[in-house]
Amino acid sequence: MPDKETLIAWDKRYLWHPFTQMSDWHEETPVIIARGEGCYLIDIDSNRYLDGTASMWTNVHGHNHPALNAALKAQVDNIAHTTLLGYSNIPAICLAKKLVELTPPGLTKVFYSDNGSTAVEVALKMAYQYWQHKGYPQRKKFVHLDKAYHGDTIGAMSVGGIESFHRTFNSLLFKSIRVPAPESARLPRCLTAMEHTLAQHSTEIAGIIVEPLIQGAGGMLVAPKGLLKGIAALARQYETLLIVDEVMTGFGRTGKMWACEHEDVSPDLLCTAKGLAAGYLPLAATLTTDEIYNAFLGEYRELKTFFHGHTFTGNPLACAVALENIAIFEREELLTRLQTTIGHFQNRLHEFYQLPHVGEVRGCGLAAGVELIKNPDTHEPYPLEEKVGIRVCKAALARGAMLRPLVNTIVLMPPLQISLSELDTLLDIAYGAIAEATG
Ligand SMILES: Cc1ncc(COP(=O)(O)O)c(C=O)c1O
Q1: pLDDT tens digits along 84-121
Q2: Residue 338 scores a pLDDT above 70
Q3: What pLDDT, on the 0 to 100 scale, is given for residue 187?
Q4: H-assigned helices in 77-219
Q5: Beta-carbon count within 10 A of 423 CB
Q6: Residue spans of alpha helices (H) in 28-112
Q7: Does the chain have fewer CB atoms within 10 Å around its N or its C terminus?
Q8: What is the largest CA-CA distance in the chain?
Q9: How far is the CA of 251 from the centre of ligand 1 (A)?
Q10: CB under 8 Å, gap of 24 or more: what pairs does 4-7 form?
Q11: Mean pLDDT of 197-214
Q12: Closest CA to 240 of 190, 286, 291, 189
């Protein structure tokens, strides 16, 4: 292995990191992770850090998990990759069956892709083409909430609502309809705005897309109870499709396997990614109903086929790990055990209000955002140049935890398997880091 200095030099010379101002990066000494152990990440100097954001909201059972490693190794001895275009493979078939059994009723077909953005692209394109097959080609538009985040590809950005991410690309994006999010409008107002939009544009709407229960990248914004159910009812009433983006919330993050289950919602399309392969490998799936699937059936020459597919669709290694991920959930009754972890987490979150620059603490399941404000009296936000979120994360790193901010909101989202004592350590570190950076 190259030595540390060489790795740092090569990183700065050859790598372009995502969502990173690279001129800042060049001023810093990067932490280079070499190994993982449970909820800890270990760098090339053997420093240990609690993984406070589950490695970008993906990790479920911890790193270097023996059963997940074994599943991956067993599969690689059979085959690493083969295509689903025209052929099939064993783990992809078994996982599709399992996902249909696990997801809300009515979802009967699984379409694989590689990441959250592509899972959303698939859902949008399926909905769009579905209406063409049903004889409603004018149904082309999608409705989404303000502050929504569904990924960084062009289609996913077109249904996004985060100005700072999406403004630059505006002229590349297709037109969609943005409805105020519950942060700016209380539940009845949000639903009224949604109903108004649907009533006004009902003949041109292909579908509504939502992040259920909590909007992640928008700032960990927790939806009022009933919003999802209300939107689902409106989708039925106005005969349009409901796409639920469970990329962040799926696989237990909110305390149930799917956030939809909290409000008994069965969408027409469900997107899952991040936790699907336990945070080990890139894998995503878009699930849909017989109604949508059947609309694509026909003669070969009719070209009703869903013309979409990625090279690594249904990759056997990722599917084998995903199967073991689900097996661990079942074997260890993780969702039952998780309730204690979530209870402890949510109780302790209130402590952050003791810090004067904490404006709001928002949490749902094992995910939370601590929003920092410059002036507690006027609620004036920290200006970007103060980089307060980044400073908190640096202070946390020095104390032994890896965090990642959403601008001025500090995200706390550890692996689901985190122990109560590790969770306490993480919360203590986050608290101390915020106190230091805002003190
Ligand atoms: C709700 C939601 N949808 C989609 C995405 C995009 O996923 P990916 O980064 O895997 O493309 C994310 C990523 O954070 C997300 O939180």
Answers
A1: 999 999 999 999 999 999 999 999 999 999 999 999 99
A2: yes
A3: 74
A4: 90-102, 116-133, 154-158, 163-166, 187-201
A5: 20
A6: 54-57, 66-76, 90-102
A7: N
A8: 68
A9: 14
A10: 4/32, 4/44, 4/45, 7/32, 7/44
A11: 96
A12: 291
Any ligand 1 atom below 6 A from CB of 245 = yes
- Residue whose entry in the numeric block shows the structure tokens 């943005």: 178
Q: Which residue is listed with tokens 């307060």?
A: 388
- Pairing type for strands 241-245 and 205-210 reads parallel
Identify the three-state secondary structure at position 342: helix
| Alpha-carbon torsion angle 56, 60, 61, 64, nearest 10 | -30
**Domains, the chain, with CATH or none:** 31-64+334-438 (3.90.1150.10), 69-331 (3.40.640.10)
Q: In ligand 1, which atom is closest to the CA atom of 118?
A: 11
Residues 29-65 have pLDDT tens digits of 999 999 999 999 999 999 999 999 999 999 999 999 9
With a 6 Å cutoff on the Cβ, whether 413 touches ligand 1 is: no
Asked if residue 55 has its Cβ within 6 Å of ligand 1, the reply is no
CB within 8 A of 195, min separation 6: which ones?
234
For residue 149, report the distance from its CA to the centre of ligand 1, in Å: 7
pLDDT of residue 189: 77
Our answer on whether the CB atom of 120 is closer than 6 Å to any ligand 1 atom is yes
pLDDT at 184 over 80: no
Q: Go through 403-412 and write b for each residue having 16 or more CB atoms within 10 A of its CB, e for each that does not.
A: bbbbbbbbbb
Q: Angle, to 10 degrees, between the axis of helix 187-201 and the axis of helix 227-237?
A: 20
Q: Which has the closest alpha carbon to 261: 102, 143, 413?
A: 102
Cα(156) to ligand 1 centroid in Å equals: 9
* Cα(216) to centroid(ligand 1), Å: 9
Tell me how far the alpha carbon of residue 18 lies from the centroid of ligand 1, in angstroms.
Answer: 13
Ligand 1 midpoint to CA 116 (Å) = 4
Which of 274, 281, 364, 406 has most ligand 1 atoms within 8 Å of its beta carbon, as the pocket-test mutant? 274
Q: CB of 180 within 8 A of CB of 190?
A: yes
- State what percent of residues in the chain have pLDDT above 70: 99
What's the pLDDT at 44? 97
User: In b/e form, how buried is each residue of 316-352, taking b as 16+ CB within 10 angstroms?
Assistant: bbbbbbbbbbbebbeeeebeeebeebbeebbebbeeb
